[in-house]
Every structure is written in C-alpha cells, then in structure tokens.
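Task: complex structure prediction.
Instruction: return structure tokens for all chains below.
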Amino acid sequence: AVDAQRLLGRIRELGAVGRDSEGRLIRLAASDTDRLGRDLFVGWLRQAGLDVAIDRVGNIFGIWQSPDNAGQAPLLIGSHIDTVIDAGIYDGCYGVLAGLEVIETLKASGFSPPRPVAIAAFTNEEGVRYTPDMMGSLVHAGGIGFETVLAAVGTDGSVLGQELARIGYAGDKEPGFLKPHAYLELHIEQGPVLEREGVPIGAVENLQGISWQRITIDGVANHAGTTPMSMRSDAGHAAARVITFLHDRAKASNTPTVATVGTIRFEPNAINVIPSQAVFTVDLRHPDEQRLQAEEAALAACLEQLAVAEGVTISVERLARFEPVIFDIRIVELIEAAAKNRGLGVKRMTSGAGHDAQMMARIAPAAMIFVPSAGGISHNPREHTEDADLVAGANILLDVVTDLAK
Amino acid sequence: AVDAQRLLGRIRELGAVGRDSEGRLIRLAASDTDRLGRDLFVGWLRQAGLDVAIDRVGNIFGIWQSPDNAGQAPLLIGSHIDTVIDAGIYDGCYGVLAGLEVIETLKASGFSPPRPVAIAAFTNEEGVRYTPDMMGSLVHAGGIGFETVLAAVGTDGSVLGQELARIGYAGDKEPGFLKPHAYLELHIEQGPVLEREGVPIGAVENLQGISWQRITIDGVANHAGTTPMSMRSDAGHAAARVITFLHDRAKASNTPTVATVGTIRFEPNAINVIPSQAVFTVDLRHPDEQRLQAEEAALAACLEQLAVAEGVTISVERLARFEPVIFDIRIVELIEAAAKNRGLGVKRMTSGAGHDAQMMARIAPAAMIFVPSAGGISHNPREHTEDADLVAGANILLDVVTDLAK
Ligand SMILES: NC(=O)NCCC(=O)O
Ligand SMILES: NC(=O)NCCC(=O)O
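Output:
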C-alpha cells in the first residue's frame, strides 16, 4: 500500500503554493506561480531518484528506469499541476502526486518491473490562460505541432513560449520522445455521480466531446439615454440572448448536454454606452459526437438569426474541439478487478471533464480512475475529496500499475 | 454673430486631445487626458481675459465681470469637457466652447452687461469613471457634499479627490460659491429627433429621470464539463436573464422607457468555470417619475424571482437616481423666440441624456438648447453635427445670453 501520510502531505503542500493576496489558489499555466509548483514537484522527483526530463512545451517527466528495462516502452502515469483561477487543491495535482507516490512505493518494495514506469505533469491542461486545454498531452500525442502552441497568445496577452522560457521550463526534449506502453490517470471525479451513488472508485470508460468557441458580436455604441429601444444594435443584449438560448436548450434537452458561458467582456464597458462589442466563450459538451455536432449547429443557427434580428455582426473562433473518446476496455477491466480485490465498490462511468488521458488515448491504451468529489464541486476552492477516498484511489493506481508494468 | 471659425477650430483642437494609441478619444474625469483638456481650456479662458476660478471638486469657471456688475448674480453658461470611452468630440465640449465663444463675442462687441456672464466646465458629467453622473454640477447645486464625491472610488480603483490633486485641479473655491441668476446649456441632442424632423434648434423643456444601479449576482463556481444543468447556480446566466428581461420589457412597452446594461464582469472569468459572480450596471430612464418607479419595481421583482429560480443571491447598489426635471418656461420661450427671430425652425423637446442643466435647475431658472446629431449617434466616435448647425446653436445661445444678461 502507498504511504498515505506522504501523499496527503504533498497534496496539501503543493496546494499551498500559488496563493494570491486573498488566499485564492491560482497557478495558471507557465505563470510565476506555476513555476513555484513545478519547482516543488521536480524537487520531489529528484528526491525519489527519478530521471527528470522536460520537453519543449514544458511537460515534466519523472522516469524510473533501470539498466535492465531501459529499452522497453514505459508505462506512463500522468495528469497536470496547473490550475484554474480560485481553484481547489486536488484537480490534476492528486493524480500527479499519487503517480509519484506509486513509483516510490514500488521502488521501496524492491519490485523490479520489466518496463520503466514514469510520471508526467503535462503543461496547460486547464486551458484557462491558453487554449486549447490538454495542450501538453495533445502535443505529446502529436495532435498539434509544438511551434503552434508555443505561439499561443494568452488571455493576458502573453505568449506561451516566452513564458515557459521565462520561468525556466522550456525544456530540450522533443515532444513525444517517450512512447508509452500504456497510460493511466487518476483524478477526482469533479462531478456528483460517485458521491451520490456511494461508490468510492470510478472506472472511466469514456470521456465526452468538448467544443470551445469564442464569439464576438459587433453592434453600434450609442447613448443609453437618448437611443430608442427600436434603434439599437446592442452587442451586450445580443450576447445575453445567446447565453439564455444555450442554457434553455441544454436544460430542456433530455440528453446530458452541458453549455457554459464562463467569460465575457463588453466594449467600451461604460454604464451609459450601449455596448459596441461583446466577446464571450462557449463551452459545449456531449458524450455523443452526433449530438455535440447538433448542439454546435443549433448555436450557429441561433447566431445567424440573431445577427438579423438585432442588427449585429457575429464572428466565431474555434478554441478547442475534441471528439468523445472511448478508453481501453482491458485497462477499465483491470481497474474494476483491482477495486473488487480490495473490497471497494466500483462503477463504470463517463468523464464530464477533459483530461490528458483523452489525448494519450490517441497513442497508447489508456484509461482513468476516479474518486468522489464532495457535492460534485470542482473549479472552486470548496473542491474536496475525503482522505480515505484519496488513499483508496492511489492504492488502486498502485495495483493497476503493478499489473501493467509486468 | 459668433466667430464661427474660432468656435469650430477649438472644438476640433480640444477633440484631438486625449487620444489613445488606437486614436480613440478617452478623457475620463480627473485622468491624465482630462488634465490636458482642462489645461487647453483654461489657457483659452485666460487668453479671453476671464477670471479663472476652480472649486474643490475641480469645476472650472471663467468669469467675465466688471467693477460695475461685480456684485450681481452672474448669468451662467455651462457643460463639461470630460468624455466617455471612445467618445465623439461634441458631447459637452460644444456647449463649453460655445459658451466661451459667446462671452468673447459679447466682450468684443462692446456690450456691457448689467450682470457678470460666466462659463463653467463641470467635473465628471459623464459618470463613467466615478458615479453619479453630473457630479460637479450636483455638488455646485448642493445636492451632495463635496467630501462625499471626493471619496468616490472609480472603476479603476482610483479615488476622485486624489486624482484631482494629482492632475492639479483640486481648487480652493467653495463649491456653489457662484450663485447664478439663470443657467443656460447648449448641447448636441445625442438622439434622433431633430434630424428626423428636419429642425435645427431644440428648445429643451424637460429632461427624463435617470436610475443607475449596480447589480451583483453570486452563484457557485463549478466545472463546466461535469456539472449537470440542473445542479448549477450560474451567476452569468442569471445576469443574462436580467439583461433580456430589461430589454424585452422596455422594447414591448408603449412608453419611451430605455434600459441599458453597459458594463459587465464575470468571476472567475474562465472558459471552463461556471461563473461564481456577475457584476453589471443597469441604466433605466423615463420622462415620467411614476413610470420610472414602475420600471425599477419590475426589475426588483425580476431579481427576487430569479434569486429563487436560479439559486443565486443578488444585491443591488444605487449609483445614481435623478427625478425628471422641468426647465424654466420663460427661458424655453426665449430660446424659441431667438430661433424664430433668426428664421430657424425650433421644436420643444425632452432630453434623453442627463445634463448639468438638470442639476443647476435646482438653484436657478435653467433651460437647454439642442442642435441635431447625425443619425442620432452619440457616445461613439461617429458622433457628428454639421458645422452650420453648430454655428446656429451658438448664435441662439448668444441671443438668449444677451437677453438674460440684461
Ligand atoms: N479536469 C479538468 O478540469 N480539465 C480541464 C479541462 C476541462 O475539462 O475543461
Ligand atoms: N450628455 C451626456 O451624455 N451625459 C452623460 C450622462 C448620461 O448618461 O446621460
């Protein structure tokens, strides 16, 4: 079994890094606080005697290999340590630190695996500062060129490549240098299912599709007091129409569609000026590709109709688009077997969130283990998972890694 | 008649001051660019041989008085030279520069008025950086204490009193030191009425009521991918509901209600996080106080219902509230007579915008002269009034000032 105190202590220690003056946890990808988190993690990798490798997009790898197995394709465990704004401490970090914990436990046990075992912390999984999300693992899987993502411009106008160089994490390894035999990721569920059903372990068999778009609506600035309602081209009002349309449609559908407008900005953003421009993001998800396409089409039709009705012009930029992924059934079955073996309830389930496993599934058999999230809350400082569940999840990871490394 | 070239030249010269790198005109109250505009204006006041006085809230006065009339209550002409963001060059500046032009014309003509004539540029008429709007004239009229407004915190976190001191316009005159005999303001209409009716001069007989509120909606941040629609408390969606409610209600009413949401901000403002907070402003106006109260009550009821339906908490802050104002009928008649005398069409009308005259009407007989705005566009760089209309308006001001100064 893993060293529960070491694991829990590290989760808390990393969770204390990157707090702002109000105590909010903000470790956006390639920021100064991300550097602090990375430095702490790399220190632990070295302490554990692992080989540390950093690639050109800042993905960090801790590799446990021996002269005997160095030629073999490694078993890779991974997740991320970047966070959203005002984050909880578990999202991503739990999986990375549990992976390290599993390797240290196996090393200490005298186990000599036939293939290397490695832990990865991928750059910019959250997609908050730079899009798309799951960026580092997408590059590793060959889904996008590293030059492209290094040129990505962030919400703050920064350029990813410059930021990685600045914080000292523009590595020299070629992205994708490590070809995994299989990929495993342990993560908090971030949703309400496991808690509601009283099941401690999720064996994640698929992951829903994700569509991110940035919509820009251009209207005409005019005086809030003198302009009759009938003479307005109000970009802000048109944006509000899109938000209520998406919400009502997703809520009324009898499928698990989710639709979110998480960011918005008005120009000129003055109290007595009708907005000339509204820019906002749309996050649409569905486990079924056909339905996700239908949701995108409905949004496009809404925008077209709105442009005419409101006298505005609308442009759309695609920020991320990932089809649903089905994970490797053999690994899903190994997770179920490990849970049963330890007397733990287990449930096959879908992931509502995007994960690095979704990208790695393109190049290796992959699956994920979930543990419950209290109240289904994530991307919120109230994100919480019970210690017992965190430790149980890490032990299931240990068992499956032991199986797969053989 | 006024010197048309001098007037038009100054309007353009002042309109070139305070441009940002994209060429946008931004002279927010008490900012660095406002300082540049003020310095230019004060230079012109001195050139004209006027006595310059600046009060504690930064209101600027140029006073034309003689030993003969120094004891009399002055006739005051006024408006403002602060602007919105990405403004046109006429809003406010036209009235201030025409007032100066009228005084210079009268001085040069050898006219010796029985009372002083003064021109005022009031601080922060726009209300974009600090609320309420018409701040300087409200203080002058005794509607709010100067200590209160000097403590006002701006949209950028600045404090008005500190900013006025920094730019050198924290004057030493007691606010209200100048008690006007009457008050006149010339302004572009900023709306579509005069142009549509082909009338060059508006005699403004009343001004609609203004209600400004800041609404804060608190929901629960959660993950955009994992949180079912039925489990959300989405502050951003709730804000969008308010925006569409206000718009639909105003548009459907058969009264001239106008409703505008000009500013918005989401927290944490991340693409995959359900907004925990939305903060936005509401600008509601109506010429009839009872109807304005009904609009405010409808908004309050909407918020109450929304709080329950969406599981959010809502708080409301009042930023400005001014009842409709009826201007002095004798001055309105003088304006009509002056227009007829010059063979110009004239129309009695309502002002849709707020103006300093609205505040000054509390302490002196007041009225306003309007000239047409092309396309009814204002608070927009495309704001435009034909030179002939600008000159005609200034000549009507000259005539009415000549009458009232007697
Ligand atoms: N697990 C997680 O929160 N990933 C971030 C990408 C997303 O799903 O929005
Ligand atoms: N005239 C003018 O634009 N005033 C600003 C205050 C308002 O919003 O009406």
